[in-house]
Specification:
353 residues; eight-stranded parallel β-sheet; 40% helix
């Protein structure tokens, strides 16, 4: 059976998320000797290209050769994350949403409408839509109740994350913060100024080179934040980057991550952080499923001195920081085990033409 995995997406998904999901799928299907994977994409980072090609049943194809091949075969499956392959409509289309319409702030009304039309088009054409976790499941059930017959829970474990060496993490840290230790922050622009104030309290308490790195979804958000921080006393300790540019090394090099703005599209980053033993700080404003309440430390980011106290605690007490990281690891192992037990579909071994 030929399984075509499409490595692009119509949605605002960092390419590294798609590349890792494809690797997860390949590794999860090792026991299925009948599957041959055609990964369709124009470019892959060296790590992922090497990881894919380490499997004898994997072929990398650019889009045009893939379109030509699929027009000539009789047994194929297409699995995608919000994309399509010309000439493949006669074959089963399996859709794994890694993001959804309306999750990115500052979108225009037209952009949101167009995004919903495209998303519903993928849903309509899909043989099945797979939610690989309860957070995605909640989003799909809430926003697409009429498509409940198409939406199914499916199990896909993480596998094959890079084994990062201290040297590569140190090099990434040097490039990102000139070597300073740092917290990562994924928050909304509306909460940016308050976060800066809380960070100021921490910096006044402890004269430290610790930096705060804000990770934004769009260049527009980043520019807004840069304008808001003008005149800020500790601006030399503030760094901005886009989630599209965030690397595994930068994720693995942080002290902890603030999740003040998060939807199910950020879950891969949370899972990876946990694997790298990075503790998560989660705002009570996030609509987390009940099954995620032990993924990290949950508190109200808007409560006065709450963030600054946590900055201090994680910085001062390494035992506490490690305990919180271990809590995330224990949660993930338990959650994955329970989800697997309650999920009948395994990707890719249960896909059918």
């Amino acid at each position: 059976m030929r399984l075509f995995l499409l490595a692009d997406s119509s949605y605002h998904i960092p390419p590294i998320v798609v590349y890792q999901k494809i690797l997860d799928i390949i590794n999860a299907g090792k026991a299925s000797a009948h599957l041959h994977y055609y990964i369709v994409g124009d470019h892959f980072p060296t790590f992922y290209q090497d990881a894919y090609e380490a499997h004898s049943n994997v072929t990398l194809l650019k889009k045009y050769p893939a379109e030509k091949l699929i027009s000539e075969v009789t047994n194929a499956i297409v699995l995608h994350f919000g994309s399509s392959l010309k000439g493949s409509q006669q074959f089963p289309q399996y859709f794994i949403p890694l993001s959804g319409p309306g999750l990115i702030q500052n979108s225009t009304l037209f952009q949101k409408l167009q995004s919903w039309i495209t998303f519903k088009g993928f849903i309509k054409k899909a043989t099945s839509v797979f939610a690989t976790n309860t957070w995605t499941q909640s989003y799909l059930n809430l926003n697409l109740p009429k498509n409940s017959n198409t939406i199914h829970n499916a199990f896909l474990p993480i596998s094959g994350l890079p084994q990062l060496e201290w040297v590569s993490i140190s090099a990434a840290k040097q490039e990102l913060t000139q070597g300073a230790d740092y917290y990562l922050a994924m928050i909304s622009v509306d909460h940016f100024v308050n976060t800066l104030k809380e960070f100021s309290i921490f910096k006044k308490w402890q004269h430290t080179s610790m930096a705060l790195v804000f990770v934004w979804d769009t260049p527009q958000q980043m520019e807004q934040a840069i304008q808001l921080q003008k005149g800020y006393k500790y601006r030399d300790a503030i760094v901005h980057t886009l989630i599209q540019d965030l690397s595994m090394e930068e994720l693995a090099g942080t002290y902890a991550i603030l999740w003040g703005q998060a939807h199910f599209d950020k879950l891969p980053w949370m899972e990876w952080a946990i694997q790298f033993k990075i503790p998560l700080m989660l705002d009570t404003a996030i609509a987390l499923p009940d099954s995620f309440t032990n993924a990290g430390e949950i508190f109200n980011f808007q409560e006065s001195t709450a963030l600054s106290n946590h900055f201090k605690l994680y910085y001062k007490d390494e035992v506490y920081r490690q305990a919180r990281a271990n809590m995330g690891i224990q949660w993930y192992e338990t959650y994955q085990k329970e989800y697997a037990q309650n999920t009948a579909i395994r990707i890719p071994i249960d896909l059918h033409s």
